[in-house]
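Weekly structure sync - notes
Attendees: PM, LS, DV (DV joined late)
Agenda: review two folding runs queued last week.

Item 1: First target. Sequence and structure tokens pasted below for the record.
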Amino acid sequence: MKKVLIFGSTGFVGRSVLSVIKENRKDFVVEGLCINKNIKLLKKQAEEFSPKFICIYDEKVAQKNKTLFSKRIKLFFGEKGLEEFSQIKSDISVMAIGGIASLKPLLLNLKSTRRVLLASKETIVCGGDLVKRTATLYKSEIIPLDSEINALFQLLRKEKKKFLKKVYLTASGGVTLNLSPEKIKKLTAKEVLMHPVWKMGKRITVDSSTLINKGFEIVEAHHFFNLDYDNIEVLIHPQAKVHAIVEFKDGVKFASLHFPDMRFPIHFSLYYPQRKELKISNELNKEIILNFYPVKKAKFPLLYLIKEAARRKDNSLVIINAADEVAVDYFLKGRIRFLDIQKTLEYIFSIYPKAKLNSEEDIFFWDEWARKKTEEFLNSLVK
């Protein structure tokens, strides 16, 4: 049985991983669970999966609830506890902590695990080269959990790059796809979170409607598969049945097709390189119609901003990620309008001082700089 650590077990990805493990208990055992502060759900998970280790990042919540768990469970609290939890040996770790907060535990965990299933795309967006070097140094394997990047992983793993012409990532377009500019201006957080296809966390759902999320996936594809940015294209695909397409020099294309359910890439990644039966419906209507459209810059300008930032190979992606985290948080709290997210990112991108990233410390320095500048700008909007 393979020992599994789950970082972010109460989030959408963490819950999906546990649902797959629940159906495959003969092959996997939950070694540890890590959360921020959803103690109610953590208690249920601990009772069902009996982990040896639990980490609660929010120290106030941890101290208040530490007597809830069996004495047989070793508890870790706060930032120091997260560092210690990250160094527990495992066969598989699932990194599903949201945002840049996942970078430090990932870098530590790569020293102690054989395989990381990576859902926290911000680690690659902000520190792709550093993460890759660390994984190589400690001979730890990283498999992307994003459905589109995971689909590329499956499509490309037995193919030779020299024959490859282009790869295509698909995007549903979120709730904004068929809305007029006037309606987009008036979108509320509640409306944006009603994604037409996927059930996901709040920030990623908002990012799916601006295509920031898809821009980050372009960066992931670049790092994971050593692809030139010119060879990565995004297509609008409202049905979200096709997750990636690869095109070879002879014009032949191969596609990865499954229903929009995260259990497909999770199941594949847990068992890789084997394939096991997954007992969920994936029947396809014989008359299914698949539509693909180019991404219009006027409709989704932030996708093109991400592509420009990625090509600069400086601190710009760290800046954009931080600004987006802050702006989306303001939007979800009802403090700014939906289009203010775009306005904010374009402003921060126009003023940031360009700099090279040479270390983990550089990443967090510019992350903090961008958050401060973004809050200053947003507070001026709110006034």
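Item 2: Second target, run right after the first with the same settings.
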Amino acid sequence: MKQKHIEIQLGGGGYGTLGDSLKTIVVRPPVPKTEREKIVEQDLKKAKDQEARRELESKLDRLRNDRRREERLLGILAQGQQAAKRSQAEQTALDTGSRFNIRFQRDITPSDISPDLIRQSLAQFLEFEP
């Protein structure tokens, strides 16, 4: 019981309290340029011959496409990991009980606390045996 609310914990009090990790975001690591890609870019800057430039541009395009393909693959893997973490957090939440807070507009007095008040406040969420 706090000043203006009563907290009721069932079956462990629920997931998402202090100390529980709610983080489900997985960040895809960046894929830096390869040394080969950097060298081809430098060679392209130096190249004067049109045929050599076309060949280097083609090689650079292939290297960039390889890097983009790896980035897409890592993105797909990160999405899968994120979905797995979200699913695990949802399952943990289901397994760890519930927490209810009954809030008052004013400070709680001893006369506010009664089994009838608790039943009435939680009736839409819980079934009470007679």
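Discussion on item 2: DSSP finds three helices and two strands in the chain.
Action: LS to circulate a short write-up before next sync.
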